[in-house]
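User: Hi! I'm working on a homework problem where we have to compare a predicted structure to a textbook description. Could you give me the structure for the chain below?
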Amino acid sequence: MNKSEVFDEKLQELARFARAISHPARLAILQYLAETRTCISGDISQNLPLSRTTVSQHLKELKELGLIHGEIDGLRINYCLCSESIHKYLDEFDSFFGKVRSASVNCEI
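Assistant: Happy to help. Predicted structure tokens:
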């Protein structure tokens, strides 16, 4: 049994999201896709200071979590942000950290 399994599913899901966005390369990919405001066809690594292989590995992680789509179009893949999934995770993150932020605990000595 994996120790993370003892926590409720929502916490596990938030942890998966946090893990996915915890790498600067994945944040850069999300930022690039957001700034272009369109689906990107072809090689994203041309626009990032990373090798094609490294970008592919990060794209795979983002795709597995559902933060991006990757549709095959002939020999190319079109990458797009998955806004619905991103909004879902951000709403859950806001809800979680809203409770943490509003906790009225003062640990100052």
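For your comparison, note the following. The longest strand covers residues 68-73. The mean pLDDT is 87. Good luck with the assignment!
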